[in-house]
Structure formats: structure tokens, C-alpha cells
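Form 7-S
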Amino acid sequence: MQLFMKPAYLTHLSTAEAAIRATGERLTQPRVAVLACLLASERATSHLDVAGMLVDHHAVDRVTVYRVLEWLVNQGISHRIAGDDRVWRFMINPQQTSAKSAAHGHHAHFTCETCGQTFCLNKTIPKVDVKLPKGFRPFEIDLLVRGCCAACS
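Output:
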């Protein structure tokens, strides 16, 4: 007898649906499923990782997954992090899952040099005094800490 475990993201579908409804935008099955995947993930996740999570329970093609991830970024529900491998990884903005809001705030990230995973350090706010030329406006400051995560230590 084979045991099948339900993917963790399935338990986040109602939370994802409520967050998308709060934006006032159209509620779609791909938006709910992709957001539920981000809600279930404790690390920054690539669009291919999200597509892989959905393959058995939601028929969402990779292009749609990427478009939904971009939509979530534009809504302020998630943010993207550029990896050393030039692949965008996406992570939920915990304080911003209930309504459309401003861009993701300043915070730090941790990238494990061993496994390559990236984690948000939401409680670490970088205090950087950047002197920009006149007319320049910053939208985000991203501090990256490199090291070895707990699983790889």
C-alpha cells in the first residue's frame, strides 16, 4: 500500500483566495494556486519550483505561473530576488497578503553557499544611508548575507 501525502500548499488555498479577493482584481484558479505555493514555502522559490509543486493537483502551464508570479509582485503580495544563477526567486511578503499595497519594504536575505537556497530575513532591516543624485528615488534596498544554512551546517 502506497501512502500519498497532500502537498503543503493545498492547506493555504483559502488564505490565498482571500488575499486575491482583497486586491479587488479578478480571482482565478491559477492565481490562487500559485499564491498558495508561495504561502506554503519557507524559502524563495523559482517559477519552475512553483510549476513543479502544481503539476499533480492544478493544471497550470509554466507561462501562466510566471505571469501570476509577476502579477503578485505588482500587487505587492510577493517580491522577487535575483539569484547568482540569474534565476528569479519569489517569496511572499508576510505583512502584505491581505490587500494591494506599496512595494515590498527594505529587508535582508540570506543565501546558503552550499545548497543555493535564499531566505528572507524579515526582522533584519538594513540601515543604509545611500546618497543618491538629485532626482533619483530608491524603491528597494536589498542586503544579502551569504553563508551556510541550518540544514547544510
